[in-house]
Amino acid sequence: MSWFEYSQCVLKKVDFDGRLFRKELRKLLRWLSPAERLQLLQWCRQQVKRKERLVTL
């Protein structure tokens, strides 16, 4: 499992709370390569569009 995949798993588990999602995202971005960061941020934007409770990002 790559760091990117791990990051997605963690964020999926905390997507019930926008603040917690944002906190975990900040922590996870420190571990990723620049290319993976961009990929994860794009994935997060898609998640925000799907879930209203993440609009607090």
Would you write up a description of this structure?
This protein has 3 helices and no strands. With 57 residues, it is an all-alpha fold. The termini are far apart.
Question: In short, what is this structure?
Answer:
By secondary structure, this protein is mainly alpha-helical. It is built from three helices and no strands.
Based on the model shown, name its key terms.
globular; mainly alpha; 57 residues
Question: What is the H-and-E element order?
Answer: HHH
Structural class: mainly alpha
Instruction: Return Rg in Å.
Output: 10 Å
Task: Tally the helices.
Answer: 3
Distance separating the two termini: 26 Å
Query: What oligomeric state do the depicted chains represent?
Result: single chain
Contiguous uncertain segments of 5+ residues: none
**Beta strand %:** under 5%
Helix proportion: over 70%
Overall spatial form: globular
Q: How many strand segments?
A: 0
**On the 0-100 scale, what is the average pLDDT?**
87
Give the biggest sheet.
none
Compile the SSE list and pairings.
Layout: H1 3-13, H2 18-29, H3 34-50
